[in-house]
Amino acid sequence: MTEIQNLLQKTSRTFALTIPFLPQPTRAEVEVAYLLFRIVDTFEDGALWTPRRRIDALGRFIELLASDPAAAAPLVAECAAEPPVARTDYMDLLAEMPLVLSSLAALRLPARAAIRRHVTRSAVGMATFIRRAGGDGTLALQTIRDLREYCYCVAGIVGEMLTELYLLGRPALAGVAKELESRAVAFGEGLQLVNILKDAQRDAEEGRTYLPRRAPLSEVVALAANDLATATEYVDLLTSAGAESGLVAFNSSISKLALANLQILRDRGLGAKLSRLQVAQIQAEVLRSALGSTGYESSIGAVSTHE
Questions:
Q1: Residue 218: what are its φ and ψ, rounded to 5°?
Q2: Is pLDDT above 50 for 302?
Q3: Beta bridge partners of 140
């Protein structure tokens, strides 16, 4: 396991399980991109820092995306001296910012440019929402529009970036490119809405209320369901265009996991999550469908040991 893959295992749940399905070089690109987005997410969620300091860190990190990775050393030192979050896994990632930035610099040029552009857009959007927080740093979204704007900043942009990476060097996807691009934001939004519903209590404890105060919960659930229906269409487009089985498996897996978790949330209420066994069963179904029997047993062994 590379250091990048080790960081991915430490800091992610769903994506750590599914990124290994991706074909190269897309797999390496998505690994690095995930970690960069996780870094800016950590600064955005830095409850132990003031809003001003979190905004400053986001701005400094944007500059680092096009700098010598060694230039991250002062920010690494500041994070070590005064952690923005209590989670040790995220702090381990912040300590490895130079490594992640070096890995970004090693990617093929079109992917590197796309990742930098989209991470920058997301970080700028995050800073906007931090500025909207109250004097005590707490954020409470009010309307469905607020929620969708937030989801776009942190997840819709990710959907756009992933689609751009998928299209690189894959002429077979050219015929469905516009259709994929038109569904990318909804795919990302749907995944984020499920995460918000799962993590509502923890987020509230940390001063973040993403569920809109002026909209019923049922409206958020319905929006997530519609988005995930669009995600299924996205996967079907990849399949019909003859995309590699691993690319289909990655997208099918994250879509099916989100759909299954949304059903559990409907049945059990906010905070409900899939069990490890349920995750493994869904992964097994995806592998049978998209990858066939080759490598099946070892893949199931891998997914069943992580949350």
A1: -60, -30
A2: no
A3: 209
List pLDDT tens digits, range 5-26: 999 999 987 788 899 999 999 9
User: C-alpha angle with apex 192: 18 to 112, nearest 5 degrees?
Assistant: 60
* Exposed / middle / buried, residue 282 (Cβ in 10 Å: 0-12, 13-18, 19+): buried
pLDDT tens-digit readout, 249-299:
999 999 999 999 999 999 999 888 988 889 888 888 888 887 664 443 344
CB 119 within 8 A of CB 36: yes
Residue 295, number of CB atoms within 10 A of its CB: 11
Tell me the residue length of the chain.
Answer: 307
Q: Under a CB-based contact definition with an 8 Å cutoff, are residues 24 and 35 in contact? A: no
C-alpha span between 93 and 35 (Å, rounded): 8
CA dihedral 50, 52, 57, 62 (to 10 degrees): 150
Using a CB cutoff of 8 Å and minimum separation of 24, what contacts does 134-137 make?
Answer: 136/207, 137/47, 137/50, 137/51, 137/207
Give residue-wise pLDDT tens across range 148-173. Answer: 999 999 999 999 999 999 999 999 99
Could you tell me which residues are beta bridge partners of residue 139? 208
Tell me how far apart the alpha carbons of residues 16 and 31 are, in angstroms, rounded to a whole number.
Answer: 9
How far is the C-alpha of 117 from the C-alpha of 270, rounded, in Å? 34
